Amino acid sequence: MATAGVLPVRSRRLRVALVAGALTIALAVSAFVLIRPTSANAETPLGPGDTTITLTVRHSHFSPDHLVVRSGTLVRFVIRNDDPIGHEFIIGDDGVHRRHETGTEPVHPPRSGEVSIAAGTTAETTFRFTGTTASGTVVYACHLPGHFRYGMSGTVDVVPN
Amino acid sequence: MRTQLLRTAIGLTAAITTAIIAAVALAAPAFACGGLVGENGTIQLDRTTTLAAYHDGVEHYVTSFEFSGEGEQVGSIVPLPGIPTTVERGGDWTLQRLEREVRPPILTAGAKSAAAAPTASDAQVILQTKIDALDITILKGGGTEVGKWATDHGFLLTPDTPAVLDYYSQRSPIFMAARFDAAAARARGQNAGDGTPIHLTIPLDRPWVPLRILALGRDATSIVKADVFLLTDRRPQLFSADAGVEVERSEPASDLLLADLRADKGMEWMPSEQWLTFLTIDTPAGNLNHDLAASVNPARQPSAVDAGITTADVLNSLSIAGGSDGLALVLVTSAAAALLALIAGSQITWRRRVFYR
To answer: Which residue, of A63, A102, B25, B31, is most buried by count of CB atoms within 10 Å of its CB?
Structure first.
């Protein structure tokens, strides 16, 4: 006869198994929730007023790598470089990217849509989505040797205001 | 054979499960490391040769840095599985002799492997030494720290380096940075093609050979070619997740080979019996994403973690299986299966335990 307050061995083990199973399910669900891509913020159009967005760089990739901006918006880009190597942030039309991909300027002085970010630092630049960038897709990228080809780029969908 | 495959699969599943749970609990970043870095990124290696000999709990890692004749300074960062007790010039003969063993008719170029140099901020310098024209530094630190040390010391790191350093530092925070001073090499009378073999002695509980590092700085389509020799006290069990890593030979090392190797500088430790495994790597750099795990313990499978299987690998495979909805389905189904297994296991027996790694 079992002593009061002490479960039979098999029942105890079953309970332990049930608790462990429940924990496993909780972990699995948590994993899905935590790991699932959260693109809602990146897909919310920025603007139409002046706005700021913070990008991070890690493993030579931008995060987020996709934004939506209302036409006419002045966006202040704050870029935090978590990598131990230098990067740059260049945004503009095809001509801008072509010039930088083949250019030789090692470090960019502060100018609209162009900034160098040393390893482990944060830099910022502003860019207004008007004129030729008033609609369609605008690319931002790093054009240091090999970085663009490695996949260090992102896109901005410009939508009507 | 089937049992062995099953055990490997079970061992892998266990490791993958652990990786997922760890990622959720720790939110740890992923890392990576290693490769050849030139001043202008143009240095390419034709073939790399490496010996990982494991005897009595000590790995003897022998590789060679070859003077290319280009540039003034090139260097490399090599991930190491542990802190070396000695770093010394290896004998000139060992790698050549091993190449001759597997390719007797033609003596092709021997060992090549070299990559850029580093400097760091928070990385801990464990050891510094100079061997011929090589300045060697053994570092301890995370990927970011080692990468910063490298850039601070003039290494030009390719864009894939941060990820590679992180990848390796998760398993072992020990790296070897080697800077090849071309001017010093010329002053020493070294010619293009002359190699400097380096012999590291590393106490380890199991051998482990970094392979992903060979793809560092290369285009995904460029072909990585390498020869890897293993010498172990008994026939090893191996695990590599990448195609293009092939076992060409697996046999007892001949007495003649062992005697020849024993005669080389620093190789006196070579025992009278060893198992020789010869692997070739011939694959696009984009396909070389993992390492080589080995076990010389018959009761222990090679570790998926040692092979560099990461949480990202697991999630990618799940995503491929069915997108994000499929991922949810797989996770919940897996959890339910785990629950059923636990219940069934509790009912059947608690006495019998089998460890696959």
So the answer is: B31
pTM over 0.80: no
pLDDT, residue B16, reads: 28
Q: What is the pLDDT at residue A76?
A: 96
One-letter amino acid identity for A9? Answer: V
Total Cβ atoms within 10 A of residue B3: 7
d(CA B46, CA B33): 20
Please tell me whether residue B17 adopts helix, strand or coil conformation: helix
Does residue B300 have a pLDDT over 80?
yes
Q: Residue B16: count other Cβ atoms within 10 Å of its Cβ.
A: 20
Q: How far apart are CA A37 and CA A24, in angstroms?
A: 21
Are the C-beta atoms of B150 and B168 separated by less than 8 Å?
no
Q: Do A25 and B332 touch (CB under 8 A)?
A: yes
The predicted pLDDT at position B183 comes to 77
**CA distance to partner chain B, nearest, from residue A24 (Å):** 6
Higher confidence at residue B230 or residue B50? B230
Q: State the residue for tokens 């090999």.
A: A146
CA–CA gap between residue A102 and residue A114 (Å, rounded): 15
Contacts 24+ apart (CB under 8 A), B348-357: B350/A13, B355/B299, B355/B300, B356/B7, B356/B8, B356/B10, B356/B11, B356/B14, B356/B300, B356/B301, B357/B11, B357/B14, B357/B15, B357/B295, B357/B300, B357/B301, B357/B302, B357/B303
**Comparing C-alpha atoms, which of B99, B103, B83 is closest to residue B195?**
B99
ipTM score: 0.72
Report the residue of A18, A23, A35, A56 to disrupt the B interface, i.e. the one with the largest count of B CBs within 10 Å: A35
Full DSSP string of B169-198: HTT--EEEEEEEEHHHHHHTT--TT-EEEE
Asked if the Cβ–Cβ distance from A85 to B350 is below 8 Å, we say no
DSSP E strand boundaries for B151-291:
174-181, 195-203, 208-209, 223-232, 237-240, 245-252, 275-284
Cβ contact A32–B331 (<8 Å) = yes
Confidence category of residue B288, pLDDT binned at 50, 70, 90: very high
N- to C-terminal Cα distance for chain B?
A: 17
Residue listed under structure tokens 């663009």: A148
Interface test with A, best of B43, B166, B219, B331 (most A CBs within 10 A): B331
User: Among residues B146, B172, B162, which one has the least CA distance to residue B59?
Assistant: B172
Rg (C-alpha) for chain A, rounded Å, is 24
Q: Which sign does the torsion angle of CA B264, B268, B271, B276 carry?
A: negative
Percent of residues in chain B assigned helix, strand, coil, to nearest 5: 30, 30, 40
B186 in Cβ contact with B68 (< 8 Å): no
Mean pLDDT of chain A: 79
| CA–CA separation, A103 and A91 (whole Å) | 15
Is B144 within 8 Å of A82 when comparing Cβ atoms?
Answer: yes
Lowest mean pLDDT among B53-67, B117-131, B208-222, B310-324: B310-324
